[in-house]
């Protein structure tokens, strides 16, 4: 439970707001070709499975991998280390690798919401002398606040879902102290321990807990900005 909530909360604190920031910055890019190139590069990792990305990351973070070579050249490390063999690095690896894979894709819904904003509001703001930062703060963010709220409610409801595919391909016995999340525990209980009824009970617990979190987040956002799922 500690590993599950730890990884999920870090993803919520880091990986939830960054796609919003990325969408806002991407919206400010005026060069169409450059903007399209950034979008393409940021979307590409989403279409690769975690099996492929897990193999890439395992190679990059190996003792003689890309990350070690860069860190040694920068003088941060004296010799290479196998990052996935150290439990204390696992949460950071899980959060950053998820951000790398989903940043561009997660920003799509915010870009779609931004594209629906009435452009006359920006024209009026320019006439009043508002800077680009002021336009973002006073027009763009309030206009997409509803979308952000709905996505936040869904993110809170999924706090116990740590992305099984990702954790499974990065997990190994050496980092098990920090990578043994509920999904991995359920898998090992059912597939290796043959305790199917107990694994089903864990799955039911996750569903009930997720509904409680979803309900709480929904009620809080309803009172704060009058936006909710139900």
Write the layout of secondary structure elements.
Layout: H1 2-15, H2 17-28, H3 32-43, H4 50-60, H5 66-73, H6 90-106, H7 108-115, H8 119-127, H9 132-143, H10 145-157, H11 164-170, H12 176-179, H13 182-192, H14 196-225
Helix pairs in contact: 1-6, 2-6, 2-7, 3-6, 4-11, 10-14, 13-14
**Approximately how much helix is present in the residues?**
over 70%
Give me the number of helical elements.
14
- Report the structural category: mainly alpha
- Unreliable spans are none
Task: Count the beta strands.
Answer: 0
Morphology: flat
Please state the average pLDDT score.
Answer: 91
**Radius of gyration, whole Å:** 21 Å
Main beta-sheet strand count, sense and barrel state = none
How large is the share of residues in beta strands? under 5%
End-to-end distance, in Å? 28 Å
Elements, N to C (H/E):
HHHHHHHHHHHHHH
